[in-house]
Every structure is written in structure tokens, then in C-alpha cells.
């Protein structure tokens, strides 16, 4: 796959066309998995390891920013708090790309005597900033909706309001199709999952249309009630994102990562894993592995086994940046990780 950034006009039909299914493009030998903790605003390693993945984040930002801008114009005209909540939701999703972008740029800096492991951890800091952005958007949206319930005001321009809800749906759907398409292209199951998240977000925009219809039927409180429902949805994203970010900050990983290590080691029968640990530093995976080999083996043979295992690990785990493999006593206990 070319790593050059393609021209938008030349690729637009390709992006939104019908491509191979999720697993059709997976290369031979790779054992991919999707972290169950992957969530909104927290970009998975398989996305950030390619220029194409970062490029997908950029265009998702552009689409959602334009969608939110158009919605805010209609908010000013109609006074709808439901649409305001949806626009805030889209603004929050769009602005999360900014701290991530900065984090990616810093993470690409070479290690220094002070930061021997590089600046990959800055992505965890970006994740906390993102959680704060989403939480702030939920508080603003909730406050506006509750205030409108207590102090009802007329909602006008219902036709424009419904149209803005549809724009929100179409914007999120465009991002969904885009992320799914690029995710399949770069073999990133996480980006595909993020695309389906964006598709779910589109349903909150359709709720704005439902609220406009309720107001048109004479139920004035339909608009703030929909605004509250969207606020609840945003709070759900806050919880999911905070859990994911804190897990990674505390060196938590998906158990499937250890499974991937053992799967790779199974291709090297002479090596028995005694201990397997791994953690993320930014969007790169670092593994520490202890293996047991026959004590009668010459040192040169043991080194060959270690090199073979290292090769298998990098072959099966694309996000792996470093594998520290050491020899352990042959009768050592099995790994607890």
C-alpha cells in the first residue's frame, strides 16, 4: 500500500464504494484482535501506526467540524436545545482530533537521555484531555436542556431544524462509511469499530428530527427531552472513554495481547514461555518475555531460538515495537500474565 497521501478527488469514489469485508484483506500471518475497551476519542494503536490511519483521523475531523458548524447556524435560528446538544456532541467528537494530532507529532520524536522511551505516554495525557472535552460538552448540553424544561421557550424554523438533524445524520454516516472503508484498507479492525460508533452517533441526530416532529405536533417539551437523551448518550461516551484511558495509563492491556504472544510462541516449539508481559507506550506495544529452553543446548542454539521467537512476534503483532526476550530456568513456573 502506498504511504503517499492520495488526492481527495481521485479517491472519493473508492472511499465510499463497496470494498472487501473486514477480514478479507488481512495479510497472511497476522493475528489481529480488537480491544474490548476501544472507545470514542481513544484511537487504537492499529490506526495510529500508519500514515493512512492518521489521515483518516484528519478527514473525520473536517467532516464533523463542517457538520457541527452548519448545525450551530440552525441552533441560532431555531433555539433548539436538542440540536444544540447534537452539535456539541459533534464538536466534541471533532475537537478530540486536535490533542490526538499533537500527541502523535510528539510521540514521533526520537528518544532522548531524559525520555529514554520517547514521548509515547503523551497520548495518555491527550486521552485525559479528550475525556475532559467530552465531559464538558455533556455538562453544557445537560444544563441547556434542563434550563429549557424549567423555562420553556418556543422552538421555531422547524423545517430547518429537521433538515439540520438530517445533516447531522448524514455527516456521521459519511464519517462512518469513511472510517470503515479506510479501516478495511489498512487492516484496522479498531478503525472499523470506530466507524460503527460514528454510525450510532448518527442516530442521535435523527432524534433531533423526532423532537422537531414532536414540537410540530404541539408537544413543546419534545425538544428539551430529546436534548436530555442526547446528554445521557454523551455521558455514556465519557464513561467508556475514561475507563479505556485509565486502563492504558495503568499499563492495562487486553488479555488477547498475551494470547497473541503465546500464539506466536507456539510457532517455536523449542521455546516454552515462562512469563509474558506487555504494555502500551503511546501506540506502540512493548513486550517482556521469559522463555525456558533445554539446559543442554549450546548458547548459540539458544540465541537462534530467541531470534526465531522475536521474528514470530513481529510477524504476528504489527503494533509491536520492542520485544525483550530473556532465558529463564527450565523448571520455572508458568507465566501468571
TrEMBL record:
This is Cobalt-zinc-cadmium resistance protein. Residues 59-248 form the Cation efflux protein transmembrane domain. Belongs to the cation diffusion facilitator (CDF) transporter (TC 2.A.4) family. It comes from the Bacteria. NCBIfam families: CDF. Pfam families: Cation_efflux. It is a multi-pass membrane protein. InterPro entries: Cation_efflux, Cation_efflux_CTD_sf, Cation_efflux_TM, Cation_efflux_TMD_sf, CDF_Transporter. Keywords: Membrane, Transmembrane, Transmembrane helix, Transport. It is found in: Membrane. The chain crosses the membrane at residues 61-81, 87-107, 128-146, 158-180, 201-219.
